[in-house]
């Protein structure tokens, strides 16, 4: 059995557990943690995660951030000058972060998304170097009504998460779901 199959089985067991309604936003975040080299395999199985969620009696919604930067940049007034002088974009990246936060908050407050819904985020790795995942999680946590499932290519140790194995991880209250659940 592949690590993605093991990850899916761990998620299936996890999503069936009763949900506590009194949890704070950061405690409603689930990180599906996997090796970055497994990204393509995992993406091919996202529909299986949706099926498992629905089989457990919950609604499903997914937001893909893969093209968030390209979409934002294409609409940016100064995009041509950023291509000429890439170092200047650093000042605009805060606006990009706000754009991503708003995109996720919109998904969390969409019609039909309620306390029984899993909103999944894929494409988190595409934000690497542009904005911190921790900034996104902290900003959207208060808006989570059901659960926020984050497909997280990286490592997890204790409450420390490292996106793409970056040196500087962060401590977070998210619940990790790994392929080695139960071992």
What are the key terms here?
globular, seven-stranded mixed beta sheet, 7 helices, 183 residues, Rossmann fold, alpha/beta
Task: Describe the overall structure.
With about 180 residues, the chain is an alpha/beta fold. It has one domain (about 5-15, about 25-175): 3-Layer(aba) Sandwich (Rossmann fold), CATH 3.40.50. Helices cover about 35% and strands about 20% of the residues. The chain contains seven helices and seven strands, in the order αβααβαααβαββββ. It has helices at about 5-15, 40-45, 45-55, 70-75, 80-85, 95-110, 135-140; strands at about 30-35, 60-65, 115-120, 145-155, 160-165, 170, 175. Strands 1, 2, 3, 4, 5, 6 and 7 form a seven-stranded mixed sheet that branches. α6 (about 95-110) packs across α7.
The mean pLDDT is 87
**Share of residues in strands:** 15-25%
The backbone outline, from C-alpha atoms, is: globular
Structural class, from secondary structure content?
alpha/beta
Number of helices: 7
N to C succession of SSEs: HEHHEHHHEHEEEE
Main β-sheet description: 7 strands, mixed
Radius of gyration: 17 Å
Q: How far apart are the termini?
A: 15 Å
Text of the CATH class: Alpha Beta
Find the count of extended strands (DSSP E, 2+ residues): 7
CATH arch. level architecture? 3-Layer(aba) Sandwich
Named CATH topology: Rossmann fold
The poorly predicted ranges are none
Number of domains: 1
Percent in helix: 25-40%
């Amino acid at each position: 059995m592949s690590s993605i199959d093991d990850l899916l089985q761990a998620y299936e067991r996890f999503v069936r557990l009763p949900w506590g309604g009194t949890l704070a936003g950061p405690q409603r975040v689930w990180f599906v943690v996997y090796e970055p080299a497994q990204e393509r395999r995992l993406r091919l199985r996202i529909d299986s995660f949706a099926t498992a969620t629905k089989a457990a009696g919950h609604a499903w919604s997914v937001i893909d951030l893969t093209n968030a930067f390209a979409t934002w940049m294409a609409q940016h007034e100064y995009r041509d000058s950023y291509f000429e002088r890439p170092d200047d974009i650093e000042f605009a990246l805060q606006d990009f972060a706000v754009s991503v936060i708003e995109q996720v908050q919109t998904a969390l407050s969409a019609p039909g998304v309620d306390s029984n819904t899993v909103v999944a985020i894929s494409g988190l790795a595409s934000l690497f170097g542009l904005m911190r995942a921790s900034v996104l999680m902290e900003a959207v946590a208060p808006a989570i009504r059901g659960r926020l499932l984050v497909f997280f290519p990286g490592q997890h140790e204790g409450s420390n998460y490292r996106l793409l194995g970056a040196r500087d991880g962060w401590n977070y209250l998210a619940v990790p779901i790994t392929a080695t659940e139960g071992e």
